[in-house]
Write a sequence for this structure.
DNA sequence: ATATGTGCAAATCTTTTGCAAATTC
DNA sequence: GAATTTGCAAAAGATTTGCACATAT
């Protein structure tokens, strides 16, 4: 079971003085002159609007409800496209349910995903200390950072209390 | 506080005043009363001593050189055992070469892995800001953290300069 | 002696690919 | 019309599983 405690809705709140948003995938694609097909539009809008993290199989299932012709291969190819353009992030969510990958539209602030091994809840968390760490890493390592993935696994507050 | 940058081989140096070490897997297993077989001893010692990050197939290949009877299934079962006991960490290394997972004996300080998309170099990086972020996350989320995975992808200094 | 671990071979799950037909610009 | 994308079906890659036999305590 995947329970989402704070996702986009709450994530879009504020982080200090800053607002966390998800830039429009469609616009980004257009700006980069990417050829748009009906299926791409469909898949992209599903990813953009999904309230939960989608894996390839789920994305396919949802897409098929609108266009039964959509094929697995197209889903994977579209994911690869978006990933290579840096428009979506790939997550494992600590492999709580198998080895699949999950995807979400990139936010203007990186955030981490915290998964509860007990109940499967996923919490999203953005903080300025994360930003500071990124700066720190970039400066000291000399790397030009393109993607960051921070995932945490443990026991959520409720499960921790229940266990003890 | 000082922060160090190190590749696998250099990891084990120092982090400020602290020494980064990899506790003995064998001892940990013994302490927990885990039944030890010849193959477990072999696999565990390979993981413990490996200077690079191992994926299941590579671990199998190395193990077979010592004991040709070792089977893939045993490798996966041993990895699962160690992972569930929290004795090894699982990494993706940004999927630079396929979807496989890599494993390493846990260190007493969490560290992040930075991968160069261009040349494939992997840099390991431990810092006090990482520790601070972990504290921050634990406190704010109420989670009891068990595993942390921070992976970064980008261009290393050399590739960045070469590209421009 | 009993519980646990292992090899084998087959199955499962996720992702990728070659190619002819369809679509976009 | 040329270049790109798609469906299909097959392949590939990574990991898991059932079961009879072997091993550890």
């Amino acid at each position: 079971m995947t329970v989402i405690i704070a996702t986009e809705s709450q994530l879009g709140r504020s982080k200090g003085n800053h607002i966390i948003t998800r830039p429009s995938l469609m616009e980004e694609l257009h700006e980069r002159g990417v050829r748009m097909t009906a299926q791409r539009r469909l898949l992209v809008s599903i990813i953009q609007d999904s309230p939960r993290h989608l894996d390839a199989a789920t994305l396919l299932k949802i897409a098929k409800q609108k266009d039964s012709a959509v094929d697995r291969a197209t889903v994977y190819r579209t994911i690869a496209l978006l990933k290579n353009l840096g428009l979506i992030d790939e997550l494992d969510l600590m492999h709580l349910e198998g080895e699949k990958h999950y995807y979400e539209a990139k936010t203007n602030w990186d955030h981490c995903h915290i998964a509860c091994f007990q109940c499967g809840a996923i919490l999203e968390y953005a903080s300025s200390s994360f930003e500071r760490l990124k700066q720190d890493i970039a400066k000291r390592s000399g790397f030009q950072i393109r993607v960051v993935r921070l995932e945490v696994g443990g026991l959520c507050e409720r499960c921790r209390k229940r266990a003890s």
About this structure: Helices of chain B lie at 25-31, 38-49, 56-66, 72-84, 128-141, 157-163.
